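Example protein
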Amino acid sequence: MAKDKVILAFGSNMAGEQGGPVEVLEAAVSGLQQAGVCFLKTSSLYITPASGASYQDDFYNFVACCETSHHPEKLLKLIKLLERQAGRRGGLYWGPRPLDIDIIDYKFRISGWRQGVRRKVSRADKGKDVKAQYGQAKISRLVYPHNEMHRRGFVLLPLSEICPLWRHPVFGLRVGSLLVQNCSALEVRSIERLEKSIKL
């Protein structure tokens, strides 16, 4: 069966059923592998200050380039199952969680976005709010490319490590340009790259 390329982003900032955040992330990778997802490249681990509620611990984040024969809805169901198995049970929006897995890109396709948002960016556009320029993704159970990834340093930094030539399917910008345009220098400096990766 043919396999499609996908990019997944992983995060954890609290203990789960499998142990601490790193053990939870490794268990998630193992669960995906057992379900037939092949990991081609994984970034280093990054430690990122949490957004939202300030009492949270920092997040452990990484990004992986994978191949899968699962269609997007089936992949999403698998991800939600792994999140529940890790101990995720809802809670505060942007609150602490043992496991968060997002589908960042699926075969360079566009799903869930409003029509007519694609356009080239001129030099005069640099620094402007991306959502205001392009419009938002529709409210949908499954949107890809992920409708917030282009402004998240904790996704863009590890993605730039393993896929520096990747272009956003909607905006047409490479990951490095998204990082410069949408993430402050302060945010980027606050993200620490560790000299270790998740065990495959």
Notes: The domain at 4-195 is CATH 3.30.70.560 (Alpha-Beta Plaits). The chain is about 30% helix and 20% strand.
